[in-house]
Amino acid sequence: MAGFRSLARQVRDPRCDLALRRYSLRKCLERFAPYGHRATWDHLCSRAGFGPEDRSPDPARLVAALEELEEARSVWLAYEVEFAERRKKEKHDGLRRPGSVDDWHRLTWGGFGVAWCDDPRVHPDDSLAEVLRRLISALEREPGAVCPVCDGERLVWKYELDHEPSTGPVCTDCGILVPRPVLTPEALADARRGRLLMSA
Prior knowledge:
The protein is mainly alpha-helical. It has helices spanning 4-12, 18-28, 37-48, 59-92, 100-107, 128-139, 185-193, and strands spanning 155-158, 168-171. It has a two-stranded antiparallel ribbon with strand order 1-2. The longest helix is centred in the middle third of the chain and has 34 residues, at 59-92.
């Protein structure tokens, strides 16, 4: 089974058939897809300027989509290294019980569904790397009351999501399943009650 980097080489290789290059980009999403496979594909296609069903996209556009995905993957892999180092230090210092961020992180190891978008057509507009930087910043500070990606205040609790966890607060502005550890207990309670958060 090819890894992310070997698939990326195929996307860039002008000697490869265009269908293989497109297929290899899709296969990259099996290794790293922050919004989930379908939503990440839709995002990359819209940002790079080709249709999700386009079987013969401009090779330069395929490479542009790959470059955005690679940048985001670099951001996430750097975070995972820091996360692993922190947990190692905590264990050394006697903190054996992981916190809520650790529980969430365990479900997203490798970067799949980090900013899950259940509706593949509703996802943030910014670059994947910028979205991940905002999410990581939120994970490293005190919980807040708004979406860490778009500052959206309209968080609603959704059920039967095609993800783990299968329920949680979804931002109605950018579509992500907001990680519970980045929200205050009050914000989570408001989302569960179906109340839209209003700025103070």
